[in-house]
Amino acid sequence: MKFKINRDHFANGLAQVLNVVGSKATMPILSNVLIEAEKDQISLSTTNLDLGIRCKIKAEVKETGSVTLPVKRLATIVRELPSVDVTFDGAPNHQVKLTSGGSTFKIMGIGKEEFPPLPEFGDEKAYTLEQSELISMLRSVSYAQSTDETRYILNGVYFNFRDEKLTLVATDGRRLALIAKEMEVPTACAGAIILPAKTVSELNRLLDKGSKVKINFNERRAAFQIATDKDTSGLIDHVYLYSKVVEGNYPNYQQVVPKETHQRIKLERELLLQCVHRAQLVCSEKSNSVKIKISSNLLEIFAASSDFGEAHESMAIGYSGPDLQVAFNPAFLMDPLKALTKDEVFFEVKDEVSPGVFKTLESFICVIMPVRMN
Amino acid sequence: MAKVRILPDRVANQIAAGEVIERPAAVVKELVENALDAGATRIEVEFRHGGRSLMRIEDNGSGMTRDDALLALERHATSKIAEAADLDRLHTFGFRGEALPSIASVSRFELQTRVTDSDVGTEILINGGKFVHVRDCGRPVGTRMEVTHLFNSVPARRKFLKTDATEAAHIVHCVRLYALASPQVAFTLIEDGRVIFRSPECSTLAERVTEIFGQQIAESLIAIDSVEPGLKLSGLIGRPGVGRATRHEMIVFVNGRPVDSRTLNYALIESYHESLPKGRYPLAFVFFECDPAAVDVNVHPAKREVRFRSEPQVRSFVIRSVLQRLREVGAPVVPVVEAQAIRPGAEATLPSGLAPLVVPAPVPRFFAATSPAPIRAALVVPVAITVPQSPVASELSNRDARPEISMTSWRFIGLAHGSYALFETSAGLVLLDRRAAHERIWFDRLVAQFASGAVTSQRLLLPIPLELDPIAAALLIDRTKFLGSHGFEIGEFGRNFFRIEAVPTWMEPADAEPFVRDVLGALRDGRLPENNLALAREELARIAAAKAIRLPAAPAEVALRALVAELFATRTPLTSPSGRPTFIELNHGELARRFQK
Fold first, then answer.
1. Fold adopted by B220-328
2. B chain contacts of residue A285, beta-carbon cutoff 8 Å
3. Strand order in the sheet with B583-587
């Protein structure tokens, strides 16, 4: 195999696939990238068996072929090559000669045969979404995923295609974030998956390279074809992301969302975020909570820790109901406020044992369970 | 029908021998005791074939005159007591006057002795209880007794002897005990012509322990010396975290006599309750002294057991003393990482202009948390000590016994296998077990939090279901309030079915179910006493600390340093709450030895 390629394009392509490498020392091939030269393009693939990525870059292919090379090392070398023009020359013994300006590298590779192929998808359930929309939906909920590995079911984002809408849900058992978008869901294509946290973070990174993203899934795996039409540094066609899904039953989130509204308060998102952020500066690991007190046209935030001090914040609101008091983990309040982009949010509270709920006009809900001082 | 008759002396002696002389080691014990009672400063013990064919005990004690020697071979003849009341003021090992006639009745027994005033010594030979001869002999002042053909006259007993190796082990153990009991006496022990140990007169017990048990054990011991009116505890005890699988190295002397005292053994084990894991026994070479009238040694024929007049008093004294000592050594090398150590309150008294030069930022806070404790300690100690069935090692007691902190800096080297942090110290190398250290920190934090009553609980979005068997369910219903006050809200949700609706903020929801099950297990074992809130909280914190920890896979160096600083801000940094060591130190000596330098 032999091709000529632009250094920055090559580096950009490698950067897309770099994150997905196997940690198992038993399969050294998993820390390699599969490079396949086809007509006018090369494709780069990496996999750790749970997750796989493939992207395509334009190149001047003189001779087709394929080889695998250690991806981390290769990416570092390519990034630092002296000239923009790079020649890649693979010998049949899997040795690769990389030439650029005055530098030449010879790198030992492994044959393509050992590289586990990325599964391709056939007639699974398929949807097409706007990338910008999916990424904003993911950002609205992904912070609420659980990081506790013992509850692996919650270590991911739940995608539910049903009832003429797509709903994304994440929860760690103490708070839950949900966002829905209306779309056409044919009965045959209805279904749901739990996308693992690692895949979600890769998606977050990869999305926004083009306009559309196509999702295929069945109950064991999912694949994303991310169009790269907005990319300007060599990516062509689409980035293909393949992932296993978390197998199991996601908790019934519908019963968790309070059905009725008690007191709804309209708040300025930025302002509330700043107030909570300042108040929590006095919190410690031992006393990690802020108390919210709502009275006529006034919202107050208290925080205190015995070994440091106290904070008191107040902001004017439009409210005329009964006085209320409830405490929360400040991080749980700040996470949705940070993730959202709308200027206004609605906050619903009832009493000190009932959850607090953030809502926006675009069917976003974040349910936060309160903490209580004994 | 046979007529009732009084048994001849020989038979009576053989019967008595059955009680006193059960095995060769018992002969050695009796004769070594006699030598010590005779004021010897040098004792040599020799035996062959596990004591079966020969046992020889030679001393340089006061010796006996011929008349005394002959009389000593009669039953109940002794120079050690004169009347029954003397039993209450025993200062000697022996007192019954049974040993010599018993031994003489079951062996070939040769006695040579001379007193200072006499020119010639006396030699007496008895074979199987039958008098053979008395004659003059030449020998230095002191006594030499030779017991051969043990149990020749009682073949049944001979058959019950174990192998030579076993019997030899008993003899060695026995001589070691007495050697420990009297460091000022030189001991030599010879088996089959080979010297097992030879220990010259030692000025301290520590020297004697080194002589007999070796340097390694000696290094893992600390001295203890505690006196209260009428009671004294001295000797050596194991460092926190140093334990053994058996009780063999827990050696207790009461008024100089090696004994097997349940009271003292349990008191020792209990004192280590938080310095050693369950099922491990401490090392101890301790002397307990009290008024001879307060202890009854006349319980067991071989005087192996003793009974105290006031067991609870003895027990609580020992526990108090040992705990205090363990806490004092709790932090021998405290690395306030690369910084000057700060004493509690030091910051406040410094003129503000000087403070910033030496005060490292992360340290003072942790001290602040421990300072209000002594007040509470005063209240808790007496309660804990007088409840006999509860583990007395209350975490809350004795907080003011915090040791002064020494100034050593630890240099972080790396993390091995994800769990052991390696540090270079001025004394050598330290391997820190991250989990154990975290457990200790969490434990202290939780105990403080429980005590302050500031428990916050996080309500759960998805309550955790919990199905229990009827007994556990009843226990849980009983203690819902207790758990509630510590951050758990548990609601009944049907027969034997519950839902955990809120957990303390420090707990991952996933841990709640196993935790509650563990707590119920502890409740069943009676480890969460209802009437002793402090102990119950402590146990709760212990279970929680073991569960609560999620170790980050790749901690930053800063995090590990903070961990060390935080660990040494706790009261007992050397062990985890379950008694495992938090770190081990390889000192320069140890390293040099390993590399054969």
1. Ribosomal Protein S5; domain 2 (3.30.230)
2. 506
3. B411-416, B420-425, B428-433, B583-587
Which one of A307, A369, A374 has the shortest CB-CB distance to B460? Answer: A369
- Give the Cα separation of A103 and A85 in Å (integer): 11
Q: What is the pLDDT of residue B408?
A: 52
Looking at the predicted structure, is the pLDDT value of residue B407 above 60? no
Is the pLDDT at B345 greater than 60? The verdict is no
Q: What percent of chain B has pLDDT over 90?
A: 4
Give kind and range of the element (H or E) at residue A267. strand A263-268
What is the pLDDT at residue B379? Answer: 33
- C-alpha–C-alpha distance, residues B469 and A14, integer Å: 57
Q: Locate tokens 């870059």: which residue?
A: A57
| Contact at CB, B456 and A372, closer than 8 angstroms | yes
Tally C-beta pairs within 8 A across A and B: 76
**Architecture field, domain B340-353+362-367+374-597:** 2-Layer Sandwich (3.30)
Asked if A145 and A178 touch (Cβ cutoff 8 Å), the reply is no
Cβ of A369 within 8 Å of Cβ of B485? The answer is no
The nearest CA of chain B is from the CA of A80 a distance in Å of 29
Neighbour tally for A102: CB within 10 Å = 7
Task: Tell if the CB–CB gap between A256 and B455 is shorter than 8 Å.
Answer: no
Q: Which residues of chain A have pLDDT under 50?
A: none
Phi-psi region of B303 (alpha: psi -120 to 50; beta: other; left: phi over 0): left
Q: Which two tokens stand for residue A186?
A: 């044919």
Q: What residues does A90 pair with on adjacent strands? A: A96
| Reported ipTM | 0.76
- Alpha-carbon A264 to chain mean position: 30
Q: What is the pLDDT of residue B443?
A: 86
CB neighbour list of residue A345: distance below 8 Å, 6 or more residues apart: A266, A267, A269, A272, A336, A337, A358, A359, A360
Specify the CATH superfamily of domain B9-202.
Histidine kinase-like ATPase, C-terminal domain (3.30.565.10)
Q: A interface mutation test: which of B366, B461, B488, B547 has the most A CBs within 10 A?
A: B461
